[in-house]
Design goal:
It is a single chain. The protein is of the alpha+beta class. The chain has seven helices and nine strands. The strands form two sheets. Strands 4-7-6-5-8-9 form a six-stranded mixed β-sheet. The protein is globular, with a radius of gyration of 20 Å. The N and C termini lie far apart (70 Å). The mean pLDDT is 89.
């Protein structure tokens, strides 16, 4: 038996016939739908409807990175050369006081997926904001590693841009925002970052995906260490900037 899932259309949901699916998608601009079969059809359809395609990404033990590329990669945003687009989001579990991040980077040749969670008491008072920050820093660090010089960074938390605003930056008061501001401003000397804010939970496909990815990091205990990320990112970018300065002095 087939199940037809309509994610965007005149009416969304699961349907048992193609005629129903067609009636809700035909003539609808930007319609998204997919058919599923087999014993897991219902579950697979639910994952699709909830933008939970990231469940197909497998993270090896102790790693918070996965890559999708090769001949099956569709390059949904038409990225070329040294240009890419990243989506980031954070999450928070108030019971365990755990924060997390999800990050997806699209380049010309692949989709790169990252996530992690931590419960460091030095940062947990910032709740999900700590995760938002880790996602953004992961995006620029990995973008540079991938050879990108231009990155569109899509986020739904204002501080990701406002703390590093070119003309009127927010005052960073918490440890997590101070660390972010200090490190991100350094990375912007290496990568041209264009910040794009979207409203959360409004159907922006890959914003929804990183939200679920961040939640998955907590659920599956995909661990990262906040201090390690801050220290490693800062040390790495400073070494590069120092080398560039020395080259210019010669």
């Amino acid at each position: 038996m087939k199940i037809y899932a309509v994610r965007k259309g005149k009416q969304t949901g699961k349907f048992l016939t193609w005629d129903e699916c067609k009636s809700y998608t035909q003539g609808f601009s930007g319609a998204e739908y997919k058919s599923f079969s087999g014993v897991n059809a219902g579950k697979d359809a639910d994952n699709y409807l909830n933008f939970n395609d990231t469940n197909d990404v497998k993270f090896t033990t102790g790693k918070n990175q996965a890559v999708q590329g090769g001949t099956n990669y569709t390059n949904p945003y038409g990225c070329t050369g040294d240009c890419g687009i990243a989506f980031v989001d954070g999450s928070w579990d108030k019971v365990t006081k755990t924060y997390s991040f999800g990050c997806i980077i699209f380049t010309e040749t692949g989709k790169y997926v990252f996530c992690g969670c931590d419960d460091d008491s030095n940062y947990s008072s910032s709740a999900n904001v700590a995760g938002e920050v880790l996602g953004a820093l992961t995006a620029v660090r990995k973008a540079y590693d991938l050879g990108l010089k231009h990155l569109m960074l899509v986020h739904d938390y204002n501080g990701i841009h406002e703390w590093v605003h070119e003309e009127r930056p927010w005052t960073a008061r918490a440890l997590v925002s101070q660390s972010y501001q200090h490190i991100m401003n350094k990375y912007r000397k290496l990568v041209d970052v264009k910040f794009v804010r979207v409203d959360s939970h409004t159907g922006v496909t890959h914003n929804e995906e990183v939200d679920l990815l961040a939640k998955r990091a907590i659920k599956e205990h995909i661990k990262c260490r906040t201090n390690d990320i801050f220290i490693e990112c800062n040390t790495y970018v400073q070494e590069i900037l120092n080398k560039q300065y020395l080259v210019k002095k010669q």
